[in-house]
Amino acid sequence: MKVSIKRDSSFQEFEVPRHPSQTVLDVVTYIQRELDPTLAYRFACRVGMCGSCAMTVNGAPRWTCRTHVDKVARNDRIEISPLKNLPVIRDLVTDMSGFFDKWARARGQFEGRLSRNEDFSRVRPESPDRLQVDAAIECIGCAVCYSACEVVSWNPRYLGPAALNRAWTLVQDERDAGKIERLRAVAGDAGCHSCHTHMSCTERCPKALSPTASIAGLKREVAKALLKGEV
Ligand code: SF4
Ligand code: SF4
Ligand code: FES
């Protein structure tokens, strides 16, 4: 099989033997161990838990450890490049710091309202708010959605689907004390109203989450808060 890997601005081609159940991460690992030890790439768990192996494979962002070569190879070829919309550190390794800075800008951290001397909060699993959180909570921060989002490409300030999805889980968390501040943080030009509902994030998310639905929920909450004069 011919494998083209993007390094700097050009592609380098390698010949890699095919195996049953071979993943794209297996291919990259083979190249680094057997053909070119200078190739830089990133992975940790190999089982779809950490999200660190995400790359662009034949034009689409994917977890390489969960992508079988048989599913993506065309005419016995695959093309691998780093995730889009993120600066490249080297070869297939991207700098995720801007991506996570946006989680902070979207106020993606829980703000408790109880002290350590008070009893635990109890959230009913069947409550409507908790069900909304459940639908969006399994994000592992892999940036596949962010890499797929065209609005991020046009507007690098846009917070993007993952940070906004995270903000939505906190806006729906009845224990959180930062709702209004968070809605202010996601309401600006770089926030939820920039989403054009293209759905690329939802189509590509390997966890089958729907950042598009979360962003629509944020738009509704921002509108309600605007009517009440809170944002
Ligand atoms: S929403 Fe999905 S694609 Fe986006 S960072 Fe989270 S797990 Fe990855
Ligand atoms: S639905 Fe919104 S956040 Fe998702 S890819 Fe489209 S523009 Fe980006
Ligand atoms: S290596 Fe952890 S998700 Fe692929």
Short structural description:
With 231 residues, the chain is α+β, with helices and mostly antiparallel strands. The chain has helices at 24-35, 69-72, 97-105, 128-136, 144-148, 150-154, 160-171, 179-187, 200-204, 211-227, and strands at 2-7, 10-15, 54-57, 60-63, 77-81, 88-90, 93-94. A hairpin with a 2-residue loop joins strand 1 (2-7) and strand 2.
Give an overview of the whole structure:
- The chain is an alpha+beta fold and 231 residues long.
- The chain has two domains: 2-94, Beta-grasp domain (Ubiquitin-like (UB roll)); 97-227, Alpha-helical ferredoxin (Fumarate Reductase Iron-sulfur Protein, Chain B, domain 2).
- The chain is 38% helix and 13% strand.
- The chain has ten helices and seven strands.
- It has a five-stranded mixed sheet with strand order 2-1-5-3-4.
- A hairpin with a 2-residue loop joins strand 3 and strand 4.
- Helix 8 (179-187) crosses helix 10.
- The longest helix has 17 residues, at 211-227.
- It is elongated and about 60 Å long.
- The mean pLDDT is 97.
- The protein binds iron/sulfur cluster (2 copies) and FE2/S2 (inorganic) cluster.
- One iron/sulfur cluster (SF4) binds at residues 51, 139-145, 161-162, 165, 205, 207, 209, 211.
- One iron/sulfur cluster (SF4) is lined by residues 148-149, 151, 161, 195-201, 211-212, 215.
